[in-house]
Every structure is written in structure tokens, then in C-alpha cells.
Amino acid sequence: MAHLLGTHSLHLALPDRVLLDDVTVGIDEGDRIGVVGRNGDGKSTLLSLLARRRDPDAGRVTVRGGVRVGVLDQQDDARPGTSVRTRVVGDRPEYEWASDPRIRDVLAGLLGGVDLEADVSSLSGGQLRRVHLAELLVGDWDVLLLDEPTNHLDVEGISWLAEHLRRRWTPRDGGLVVITHDRWFLDAVCTRMWEVHDGVVDPFEGGYAAYVLQRVERDRQAAAAESKRQNLMRKELAWLRRGAPARTSKPKFRIDAANELIAGEPPVRDTVELTQLATSRLGRDVIDVLDVDAGYDDTPVLEDVTLHIGPADRIGVLGPNGAGKSTLLALVTGELEPMAGRVKRGKTVTVRQVSQRLTGLADHLDARVSDVVGRYRTSYRAGKDEVSPGQLLERLGFTAAHQKVRVKSLSGGQQRRLDLLLTLLEEPNVLVLDEPTNDMDTDMLAAMEDLLDTWPGPLIVVSHDRYLLERVTDTQYAVLDGAVRHVPGGVEQYLQLRRDGEGARAAGPSGTGRSAATDGSAGTGRGTSAEAGSGMGPTPVTGAQAHAARKELAATERRMDRLSTQMEALHERMAAHDQADYVGLQELTEELRGLEAENETLEERWLELSELLT
């Protein structure tokens, strides 16, 4: 692969610390690189250096002659006097840009609901972000450097962007470096990962799931000081191995080493214990939304909604922006009274919401973090353990120094974590989270998910973070066309409904029957089965087809075993190879990528055959 862009011995220091030290990385044709790391460790700075928008203190950035580099940063230009159309396609006549399939695809995927003649200064933050991204994607670039491109995008927008980036170049052309906290997106798009931490950049092969596997192995061999971080990653790996194959059609790895690493690792949640605790605290009936119409100023937003929330339900809510997700949450929390129908709550129900606006911190901005937490309670039960508020702060990434800082001086991600912690310390028995992942890095997301795994009560989560929804919730509902319906197929079924242009009305009224976590009958409720969502039942498999599938499955597994042995041997050859022989290493890398690509194809076929035979 030809070299496109790279760095040599980059060094950059801030007044109080070294941000990047002797960093040498390269981007070759065909590279799709995801960048992860803690907030403040230098991810965006590295991208600015690669884009040559910032000069290092030492070292250099090299770009091959003629290579065109496009950059998306986190700042969106909203200077007035420019229309959306001009911003995206310039002064070109309409017949010219409208005949370009790439431009049509970008406009349809990102700006379908935006007035092209509107002034950019009149747009919302989310719309402006889409315009900025569209302006970049209509261009012809050899390398794209994207800093948080999924911010303000809903599940559909993120899915479209992933597909666009997969199809933008051939597998051996173009280069992509993307910073994002969206772990599903990293797995869907990236074939390599960079972890920025402690002044260095560690490379990993594969997407996010493969990165977790390799990082667990690295942490397993690290010093005891890394043990807490290691255990958290082991838990996430266990979920990836056990849950992801059932939730996605594209598993990223099937390696015996992964199973060895999680041997003996318990499920991420003790479902039986949590259900018993929740039932003892709440009883069997929690919140029932019964035939409700709801809206504002006599204008209905949701109609004929029926939703049953049981004592241990973990519900994810999906829907496009403006569909009525916040209205549904307001019904659950009691902030909004229904226009028709009724909302029935158990006598002991106490609902708390962690909102995007961080309203829970408004009265504490001038206080120190430790003082604020100390006002609530001296202990908190997390699963089977009794922990102090200080220990909870440590679990959520607050060091001793952070605990002495005033709340108003915390970063956005730290404030969001503190708001969640204060809500938990109030010990409500129903927890509502509205976009809880904003401003959090992947490590903190894992820490937050680990804490939520011990939550003994109903959990309702609204988020565009697909990974989070699949990780912490057990059943999903979609808000579509003014109705709420159960989507037993999860995010994939929701996206298919959106692609097909099917609203909840087309499959019947709002999701009836209790959620799967409540009584297991959701699949038989009106408009809730997978067949109802697709309009067809499963196709029966004949005996001959099953026999052929079993034979192919066995052959696929044998070939995957051989590939695994070949890749392991190739890794050993690369480790023993002269590291100064770049040409030889490049040849071995190409051979390894070919084996990995074949193995990934076989994994997909293996999953298809397994599902066919179940």
C-alpha cells in the first residue's frame, strides 16, 4: 500500500505536561483508522497535527505529493449571509451538482430535512453540524480526518455515514482517520485503531471489538496498577463475545484466546438478583401508560400509546429527532399530563431523570465535588457491594484532585458523570437517561455501563449511541409517526422500518403487551413481532437444505481454524522480523490483511448458517 500521510517523532508539550512524545504513525492507502483515548489525552491535537493546522514542538508531518486531505473539526462555522446550498455545493449551477451521484447521496443522507435556501446562521447546532459534514463529504479527498463526525447525528444518520464511508473508496484506496466515542461506528467502519494515552499512540489491528480483545491481553500482562482498568475491559469483552453475535450480522473476531480470557467471567448483569431486588422495592406494577394521547398546546405529538414498564425492565427508546421521544419521557416522569388516556403509577414509584441539560447540577455549581456528594449519603449499594460515595466517584473517573474541584470548573463529560452519580445517590427506583453519553470517552462509557449493570430497577434510556443501547438495555421501543411500538429486532429492525418508510401506524397501534423483560409476551403483542415488522414470517428450511447447510458450516469452521493457525504463525513471523525492513514488514502486513479479510467473510457466512439452523 502506498503511503499517504504520516508523522515522525512528534513532540508537543503543554505548560503542565507532555501531550505527545516521540509519536510516529502512518496512514497508507486503504487504512480506516479509529482513534480512542481518554478526554484530554490528545486525540484532537493529533488530528490537528496530521492536518498541519498546528505545528509540533519537534518532529514533522509528511504528506505524499498530490494527496488531498479533508478535515472535519469540532467547530462549525455559522457566519451569516451564506445559504446552505452555497455552503455545500458553492456557486455551481444546479444541473451540474444535481447530476453528481455523490452529492445527491450526501444531500439525501444528511440534509433531507434542511431547507437548502436557509441561511446557515438560522440553523440549529445539529443541522449546522450536518451541513459542515456534507460540505466536506461532497469533496474529492484522498484522506479524510474526522473529529467526532457522529455528534448530533441520530441512529439513521450514523448508519448512513458508516455506509457512505465504507463505499466511498475501494478497499485499497483512500485513507480515513476518525475520532469518535461511538463504538458501533468504530466497529462498522474501522480496520485499525489508535489508542492515544500517556503521550504515546498504540496501534491495534481490527475495529473496536478486536481492540478490546488486544487491550485486555495487554492489560493482563501489565502492572497491578492497571488491574481495575483491566477488569472493566474484561467485562466489556465478555459482553461483546456473548451479546454481540446475537445482535449484529458482522462479528469482528472469533478467536479462542478471547474465550480463554473471559473464562469464568460472570454475565455483565445478575438478572435474577436484580429482578428480585426490583420486585421487592416496587412490587409487580410500576408504570403503565394506557391508551394515551399526549402533546402540547392541544397539538398531539403521540397518539394511542400503551406501554407497560415492569420492575426490572431495561428499555431503550429509538426514534428520529422530533419524533416525540422527549414527550414519551415526560409522560413516564410525570412532567406531562396526557391529553387522553391515563398513566398509572405504583404507590412507591420514584422517578429521576438525568437530562441533557444537567439540571441536577444547577444548585451546586460553586461547591466542590466532594462536598456535593457528601450531602447525599454515606454509603450506596452497587449490586452486592456496599460502597462509599468516594468509591463511586473513583469508579466514574474522579481522582482525588478532581474531587476537590468546583463543579462549574469540571469538563462537560465530568459534569455529566457527576449528574448521574447524584441521581443514583438519591436512590430513586425508576431511572430515566436522556442522551447520557455526550462528552464521554470510551473508557468512561464503559465505567458508566458497569455502574448501570448494578441498577436494581427499571431503566429507560434515550440515546443515538447504538452500542450503549444494546449494552445496557434488554428491549427496545421505537417512536415513529406519533406512535410507540416494540421492535424485538432492536436497532436493525428500527433502521429497516425507517428505510421502508413504515411508521408505527402501518403495523398497528402502539406496542401492546409487556416488554420481554416483564413477562416474555412482547413478541405476541399487537404490532410487536419481528414478522409484523417485516410483513412476512420466517421461511421454512427443508431437510435437504439443512443437511447442505450443516456440511457447509463444518467446512467453514475447518477453514476458519486453518486461517487462525496461519494468522498466528504470521504474527510470530512479523514479531521476529527485522523491524527496520519496512518493505518486508509491509509484505507480511498485506498477507495478514488478506487472511483477515477472508476470515471476516467466513465469519459472516458462519453466522448466517448458524442462524439458518437454529
Automatic annotation (TrEMBL):
SMART domains: AAA (SM00382). The keyword Nucleotide-binding applies. SUPFAM superfamilies: P-loop containing nucleoside triphosphate hydrolases. CDD domains: ABCF_EF-3. It holds the Pfam family ABC_tran_Xtn. Residues 500-553 are annotated as: Disordered. It comes from the Bacteria. InterPro entries: AAA+_ATPase, ABC_tran_C, ABC_tran_Xtn, ABC_transporter-like_ATP-bd, ABC_transporter-like_CS, ABCF_ATPase, P-loop_NTPase, Val-tRNA_synth_C_sf. This is ABC-F family ATP-binding cassette domain-containing protein.
